[in-house]
Structures are given as structure tokens and as C-alpha cells.
Amino acid sequence: MQGQTVDKVPVWLMRQAGRYLPEYNKTRARAGSFMSLCKNPELACEVTLQPINRYGFDAAILFSDILTIPDAMGMELDFVEGHGPKFNNPIGNENDLRRTIQTEIDTKLDYVGSTVKLIRENLNKNTPLIGFAGSPWTLACYVLGGGGTKDDFIQVRKWLYKQPDLLVLLLEKLTEHIISYLTMQIKKGADAVMLFDSWGGLLSYHNFPIYSLHYLEKIINRLNESFPTIPKIVFVKGGGVWLESIVQLACSGIGIDWTVDLKSAKKLAGKDCAIQGNLDPAVLLGDRNFVRKEVKKLLDTLTEEERKNGYIFNLGHGISQHTSPENVSILVDTIREY
Ligand code: CP3
Fold it and tell me: What integer pLDDT is reported at residue 96 of this predicted model?
């Protein structure tokens, strides 16, 4: 991410600390719930380090969640088993939304800063720690969508068409929160930061630049002013159609999902911007020979020159909880042996 030539392809996986790992499930059970795990710096540090200790990944990612921001805005996040994220104080009307926008976060996310500091103290010096936040648009999807993903966030898209001014107010406020949040993570020791626009792909072709890219750009530019040497990564799931404009952002790396051709993405990004991705997470549900074959196939799509200059192996989205831990070893070994 610093633009240096490397002699081996670096690898880490989105959601590398998660339910596919038995040691994660044990720690989560000790914490009692997902949110108590996030809010306990010692335990959050422990699960961050688990995949590093097991696989020797080249980067650690802070264990937390993108929804800590709406939680701090008073929506009270909860994860109900089998249901995904739920807010105890969902937004039902315009008044709720205005109140949420006006709620200040102050020191409510300090626990994340404590976690970052603790991880940085306990992580091997040569392994970078990635901090992260959701993009304003993706957070708005959850804030206005009641947490559910089953209906492609139809609620937020309804707000977009019916009350765009109010949506813009929310996006602007989230942008400010995200800048402060990432600033805090960097000050506490994050070596790089990543923005997850997991639902950017739900926007129409002409709305993506207005309702998502614009805010991503604002965040990247503001962080570049304060922290020019800290690498910034942007991942837009379903963002393939806008790749040409996404690579124009002043960031150091672009994450791509598995619907994008890696070779074309690397060509578009050029030498100054790294590409991160893009194995289909479902590949890891196959048998070991299949995993080996698909990992090699992906590495083969780039030239040696391209692999050494700005390529980071990752999945195209988060690892599935049904992945066998052994297949992740095979993935890492295949990249190392390549
Ligand atoms: O190693 C890591 O990457 C862990 C840190 C991390 C988590 N969430 C932990 C988590 C990160 C970077 C995230 C980001 C996140 N959270 C995103 C953006 C990335 C993406 O996947 O698109 C999004 C959209 C969320 C919101 C979220 N959090 C959802 C929709 C869910 C439920 C999904 C599910 O798999 O059930 C979560 C919960 C969550 N966040 C888990 C983990 C390990 C599983 C919850 C559990 O342990 O019960």
C-alpha cells in the first residue's frame, strides 16, 4: 500500500476474524454477545490476533463493526442469532431521523480507540493494522433500512426518491462522524484505513456518484490532508461499473468483488494504486484441490510485474461462516508457494 515493490503477494481476508474459526466462537461465547465482544477491548484484541496467529496473514484488521457509528448515534445495535443486525431504536419517521442526525457521538466510540491501541501493542511490529469504517451510503442503508438486507434496502431507496434533502443531511453527518472515527483510529495506531461501501452496488448508475462516491471522496481527501502517508483503501461491492471513477479517488488501494476482471482492474488502477481482491468467497466452500486451482488461476491472470507492484490477495467479499479453516490454510500456502 506504500507503493513499494514486493517479492511475495501479500494476503489477508475480509472478515478473517469470524465465525468460521472455532477460537472466535469460543471468545464470542465468553463475551456473551457480538456487541459485548466489540465493546471489550481485551477480547476484541484477542479475536483480531487469532487469524494472524493461525495463518500468518500479512495484515490484521481491527475487530469491530461498521454499525458502531449508528449504535453510538443512539440506535442501539443488537445482533439477533440468525437475523443479522437489528436496532432497538429504529427510525420510523422523519422526526426519528432528524433526532438521530442531531445526536452527537462525543466519546461514545472511545472503546474502539482502546481496542486499536491494545492491538497495536500486541501485534508483531511488521504486521500492519487496518482500521475501518462503513461508507456514508452503506451506513445510511442500515440506518434507514431497519438493519435488514432481505429487501435490497428498499426503504433507503424510497427516502432517496421521496426526501433526498433529508438523506443528504444524514450522509453529510455520517461523513463527519466517519472522518472523526478514522482519525481517532489512526491516532491510536491504525497503519491503514479501509472504507467499506458494501451496498454501493444498490444505487442506480447515475445515483452512485451523487450519493456514494462524492462522500467517499470527501473522506479520502480530508484524511489525506491530515495523514498523507497513511494508506487508504476503498471497497465498493458491486462497484465494477464505476471502476473508472473509483480509481480516480486519491487513495492507495481499491478492493474489488469477484464480478470484476482482476486484470482489467489492475490496468485501470495503474502503478500508483493497489488492487485488492477478488476471489469469490464461495470458492472456499469447495474441496482443497479446487481451492488450490482457483487461487492459482487468479494469480495467473496478472503478470509477475503486476503481482509485485500493487496487488494484494483477498476475497471479493467477507469469508463465509461455513468455510473450513483448513481451506484457508490451503489458500495461504498456495499463495506462498506460487
Ligand atoms: O476480520 C474482520 O474483518 C472482522 C471485523 C469486521 C466485522 N464486520 C465483524 C463481524 C468488519 C471489517 C466488519 C464490517 C462490516 N459489518 C461490513 C462491511 C463489510 C462487508 O461484509 O460488506 C458490514 C456490511 C457489516 C454489518 C454486519 N455485521 C452484518 C450485515 C453482520 C451480520 C452478517 C452475518 O454474517 O451474520 C455483521 C456481524 C458481524 N460483524 C460478524 C462479524 C465477525 C458476525 C457476527 C457474530 O459473530 O455473531
Answer: 94
Q: Give the chain's residues under pLDDT 50.
A: none
pLDDT of residue 134: 98
Looking at residue 144, what is its pLDDT? 93
Q: Is the CB of 215 under 6 A from ligand 1?
A: no
Domains of the chain with bracketed CATH:
22-274 (3.20.20.210)
**For residue 190, how far is its CA from the centre of ligand 1 (angstroms)?**
19
Q: How many CB atoms lie within 10 A of CB 146?
A: 16
Known catalytic residues are 15, 19, 28, 65, 142
Task: Calculate how far, in angstroms, residue 19's C-alpha sits from the geometric centre of ligand 1.
Answer: 10
C-alpha span between 51 and 48 (Å, rounded)? 7
Q: Looking up cell 466517519, which residue turns up? A: 178
Output the pLDDT for position 152: 84
Ligand 1 centroid, distance to 267 Cα (angstroms): 30
Distance CA 197, CA 151 (A): 18
pTM given for the model:
0.97
Nearest residue (by CA) to ligand 1, atom 17, is 66
* Direct distance between the N- and C-terminal alpha carbons of the chain, in angstroms, rounded to an integer: 21
At 148 the pLDDT is 63
pLDDT for the residue numbered 72: 98
How far apart CA 221 and CA 251 sit, in angstroms, is 9
Whole-angstrom distance, CA of residue 151 vs CA of residue 245:
28
Kindly state the DSSP code that residue 287 receives in the 8-state scheme. Answer: -
pLDDT for res 1: 62
Q: Is the CB of 61 under 6 A from ligand 1?
A: yes
Average pLDDT, the chain: 96
CA 103-109-112 angle, to 5 degrees, is: 160
